[in-house]
Amino acid sequence: MRDRITAFLVLLPSLVAVGIFVYGFIGQNLYVSLSDWGKNPAQALAEKPTLHFVGLSNYRELFTGFVDVRFRQSVVNLIFFTLFFMAGSLGLGLLLAVALDQSPRGEGFFRTVFLFPMALSFVVTGTIWRWLLQPQGGVNVLPTLLGLPPWSFPWLTTREQVLVFDWNQLPFYTALVVGLVLLYVAYRAHREGEGKRRLYALLSGGLLLLWAFTLGRSAHLLPYPEPHGFSLALVGVILAAMWQMSGYTMALYLAGLRGIPVEVLEAAKVDGATPWQTYRHVILPLLAPITLSAMIVLGHIALKIFDLIFAMAGLDYAPTDVPAIYMYLLAFRGNQFAKGAAIGILLLLLVAVVVVPYLASQLRKEVRR
Amino acid sequence: MRKWLWVLGMALGLSALAQTGKLEIFSWWAGDEGPALEALIRLYKQKYPGVEVINATVTGGAGVNAKAVLKTRMLGGDPPDTFQVHAGMELIGTWVVANRMEDLTPLFRQEGWLQAFPKGLIDLISYKGGIWSVPVNIHRSNVMWYIPAKLREWGVNPPRTWAEFLATCETLKRKGLQAPLALGENWTQQHLWESVALAMLGADGWNNLWNGKLKFTDPKAVAVWETFGKVLDCANKDAAGLSWQQAVDRVVQGQAAFNIMGDWAAGYMATTLKLKPGTDFAWAPSPGTQGVFMMLSDSFGLPKGAKNRQNALNWLRLVGSKEGQDTFNPLKGSIAARLDSDPAKYNAYGQAAMRDWKSNRIVGSLVHGAVAPESFMSQFGTVMEIFLQTKSPQAAANAAQAIADQVGLGR
Fold this sequence. Notes:
heterodimer, A: 369 residues, mainly alpha, B: 411 residues, 13 strands
């Protein structure tokens, strides 16, 4: 009993501090995001601004308002950036790890070299890569070393977009994706022989798809088409981010590869598995938990990215914009504090979507133990 | 040993007695502009030797970082004694409407500044019967820069209207010059836009845009975007990656014929690149804006609750004086806001600008904070992005009007 009280007393200060400085401020930010702070310039920076409660109108404006087209592009940018950055870092890290796992000569040297970029800050990485990706210098002159004409790819300055879709169709796409996921869940339930889950998943998935293809096509967010896509100017940013983080995934994967018991690999060899089959059916499945942890870390880095883009392309260039940058612009240059707070809350939700399921599964594991 | 300590203690005590407080000056003048501020501070120290001056500079072009720091300090109840700000709506729309600044009209009366500064400037820094900051310098926004020798080589003259400009552009393109107009990153594109808009709307139309009498969706204002689009076709495609200095470099190196930039470009070419104004490089009002001086000005204001109010007032007095302005401006590469400044202290470009400053019609710049509040300016970048992405004059005009309504422009 006394131990418990001591433990509680020792924890109390940090509990109070976290309660105020983390959750209290999140709460205050939420409150600001539901207010109109910044709409009236006379109140924006007044000594004691009077705030009015306006409900979700800041959020509605961000997703459907006429002037916030840049926010929508930044969300699309963020999603593509996260996808390509994670896939790239994981793939490259795995390749490097597998190469180092063959125990080449000078392994320690290469390990240090590959891990080194992680020691730099994103601002340094961004500055270096901005120089490398200049239109008339850097990597564009590489082919001239072989006597070829230089590339003329405008890495960070292009306005071209690929994979363009209409923002208006977002309800349709969302229903489509969720419906397909539910069908997949139903399929899994079918294979595992869980009748109830199969029925519910099939039913709700089917309903969603039905809605998508009938009413969903005419449910529009905006009164006019608004194309968004993956802007090619992000390719340079993704390259720099991969350069920075693939050493980290390499280290994780290398530890995982070294942790696989030799007996398992020998058993596979005895069973007559080719190296490729060993990787496909033995090693990669054993690395799955590592991939998950790496995805969590990379995912939340990607969602919070600000400094790298700040250093590479600046704040004002919409083709490389992400919500964190738009938030900074709105709040600290435009004095639109409520709208900035709303973006902050949206980012928090996005990160939570990535991190919370992971934390929950970890917690459950610990309880089981 | 003990005696030595005692002497030191006495000296410290004496110097503390001699001081009559402090003065914190908040600005974004570092690097090239640092020496000009230093000179002004030296002058202040000569006049008020007891005051300890704290030079609180936050680096970053056009004050992008400084403004964020200033906001944090003001909201946190720790205002600097005086701070640098672009004269006009950037100050008024942010800090004056929020009731955070002191009215400086008494100071202007006392020092006779109502006559020393031109009326057009006084109008731009006035709001609701008060005058809110002391302008220390004047820059001109609507200037076109070129290299006379290069133009002779190509056989073209500096264009006097945008129609002429487009024709000249075609000629130059036929002669193999890919991008006759050198352009830089986002804000320099907005800078180009304001020169086009001033030419298309005229000085009155330009002012009406900001007092709400002329809508952005008016056919006349939409036509600005159309012309602007055509002008952009004459510019380099990698603009987003270039600083304004790099854009000027293209003109100097003969890769482009013209650049529209504020007159800090003259300082860059004359001081940094060591070119002779008037012969090595030359200038003209941007096409279609002859007789109009689109100005921007750095100024100092007095926030309410300044800890050393009297010292700050003395600083403002110095900043607005003939002596202060003639110390500061030749080093900064700008001209004095006062009409009675000494031309002998300035180079050929500065003297030409001073003549225009006295005789031309004065209007304010958008990008540099004179005519629109921050809440509009920061979102005007988004309007520019909408136009560059869609190439649609109507879409850009609609977006600009939506933002103008949202921030209550002209109200």
